[in-house]
Design a protein that fits this description.
Layout lengths: L6 H11 L36 E5 L2 H4 L12 H6 L17 H15 L3 E5 L2 H4 L9 H16 L3 E7 L5 H7 L5 H18 L5 E6 L1 H11 L10 H25 L5 E6 L4 E3 L4 H14 L1 H9 L4 H7 L8 H7 L6 E4 L4 E5 L6 E4 L19 H13 L4 E6 L16 H19 L4 E7 L18 E4 L4 E4 L1 H12 L4
The structure holds 4-nitrophenyl beta-D-glucopyranoside (PNW).
């Protein structure tokens, strides 16, 4: 057992270690430690997470699986979009991606080496229903049966997302995808079908991943599939059908799944961070959190669109019935939040009572230009959800970052910027748990580099570097960092 050493003597040793070979095992701070072993650096007790905190990692079907034409999978809107020249950087596609469809056993061993206790993956709707509705394709579901069995055999809990953006192309062609209520209904039916078959082993389902990204980017901005720029009225109706689909899926899962199955969503809420932590700015950020998330999280939690949202939309407001609102707000067992960036909010005297603060030009970001750095987002996100809607179980369903990863001469990717990002964000997450906010788990995005949507393969988010030519996976420095965090159950 290593002797506990003071911070000062550690600094001395660390200083001299720099002169020694970095492979000297007892001085190498990245050397693998067995869980429960004495840490090489003293850990401050107060930085620990609650006992049983669920550490995990996440991926999504189209971003990792490849095998797009295998075992009866139908085409999705992302196949169509990525095969349209000019839509994705370098005209990259998910045809092969990480070939996870054939490498899943090896990938589960990567998870095991990290020590993760849970894995969030998504199910490709067009594998299960190649045209979105109609006859199911049993071979498509088989892949997930095998994946789930292999996870459980390795003591990793499966958390399944039912929609991570790969909508069956046929639904897009027949009714305009989420523009049509028929898609909401088809989604509910598909969710019930999957839950009925997997819930003997999968205990947690997420309905939809990131309304705030796929609806906005796919149907208004047009930079994600299906690449539309709808006018406001049709666009707001599309938003409504997405949350309606979520509600129908919740009801179908409740009706078809084994008792005890838990259901929630994974939403990339706008995370309203008070510019200063004073009572008035905190109050403003709390108001902003409801209004900025009005079309998705707020209506799901409250069963009503906010007055400000409806007033602002005016004649372009969505058309809905009271029954729709009941379905949309079907009670959930937990909330999942994907958190990457902060939105700074200040108090002001406007009727809304808050104003958004635009980041200055010099504001730092990670390799993806949208990914501005704000560790406090991981504190304020769960705090708002717990305080505003009294949610009792929260998961961080995604957090992570892109770096310009390049293997060094020794083959290792020294992604010190990702480690910096994770260390600071996790410190704020720990602060949330220490304040009693009920965050139960954290899924790091992502297990490995993968198809980053419109950015193709240019932005890498993985803890493992993927050489796409050989499909070789190599752990980055950040994988060692995360393994330490999990082993200590504390920020490392
Ligand atoms: C999320 N933005 O997407 C998705 O759930 C993942 O599939 C994705 O790989 C990950 O975050 C990293 O991007 C986002 O532009 C895509 O603000 C774009 C944005 C946010 C999230």
């Amino acid at each position: 057992m290593t002797k506990r050493i003071s911070r000062r003597s550690f600094a001395k040793i660390a200083g001299s270690a720099a002169l020694l070979s970095t492979t000297t095992p007892q001085l190498n701070p990245f050397a693998k430690q067995s869980p429960g072993a004495e840490p090489s650096m003293q850990t401050t007790q107060s930085r620990e997470f609650p006992k049983g905190f669920l550490w995990g990692s996440a991926t999504a079907s189209y971003q990792v699986e490849g095998a797009v034409n295998e075992d009866g999978r139908g085409p999705s809107i992302w196949d169509t979009f990525s095969h349209t020249p000019g839509k994705v950087v370098d005209n990259a596609t998910g045809d092969v991606a990480d070939d996870h469809y054939h490498h899943y056993k090896e990938d589960i061993q990567l998870m095991k080496a990290l020590g993760v206790k849970s894995y969030r993956f998504s199910i490709a709707w067009p594998r299960v229903f190649p045209t979105g509705d109609g006859s199911p394709n049993p071979k498509g579901l088989d892949f997930y049966n095998h994946l789930v069995d292999e996870l459980l055999a390795n003591n990793i809990q499966p958390f399944a997302t039912l929609y991570h953006w790969d909508l069956p192309q046929s639904l897009q062609e027949r009714g305009g995808g989420w523009e049509s209520r028929d898609t909401s209904k088809a989604f509910g039916d598909y969710a019930g079908y999957v839950a009925e078959r997997l819930s003997d082993r999968v205990k947690h389902f997420f309905t939809i991943n990131e309304f705030g990204a796929f609806v906005e980017l796919g149907y208004r901005v047009g930079i994600h599939a299906p690449g539309l720029k709808l006018p406001p009225g049709r666009f707001n109706q599309t938003r409504h059908h997405a949350v309606l689909g979520h509600g129908l899926a919740v009801q179908a899962i409740r009706a078809k799944a084994k008792p005890g199955t838990r259901v929630g969503l994974a939403e990339n809420m706008t995370i309203c961070v008070p510019v200063l932590e004073t009572a008035q700015h905190i109050e403003a950020a709390t108001r902003a959190a409801r209004e900025m998330n009005a079309p998705y999280m707020t209506v799901i939690q409250e069963g009503k669109y906010t007055d400000a949202y409806l007033a602002m939309a005016g004649a372009d407001a969505p058309k809905f019935t009271p029954e729709d609102l009941k379905i949309i707000s079907s009670p959930l067992d937990f909330a999942g939040i994907n958190i990457y960036t902060p939105t700074y909010v200040r108090a002001d005297n406007s009727p809304a009572g808050f104003a958004l603060v635009q980041p200055p030009k010099s504001y730092p970001h990670m390799a993806s230009s949208w990914l501005t750095i704000g560790p406090e987002a991981l504190y304020w996100g769960p705090r708002h959800v717990a305080k505003i809607w009294n949610v009792k179980e929260i998961y961080i369903t995604e957090n992570g970052c892109s770096s310009s990863d390049i293997p060094a001469a020794d083959g290792i990717v020294y992604d010190t910027d990702r480690v910096m990002y994770l260390r600071n964000y996790l410190t704020q997450l720990q602060r949330a748990t220490a304040d009693g906010i009920p965050v139960k788990g954290y899924f790091l995005w992502s297990l490995m580099d993968n198809f980053e949507w419109a950015d193709g393969y240019t932005n890498r988010f993985g803890l493992h570097y993927v050489d796409y030519a050989t499909q070789k996976r190599t752990p980055k420095l950040s994988a060692s960092f995360y393994r330490e965090v999990i082993a200590r159950n504390a920020v490392a």
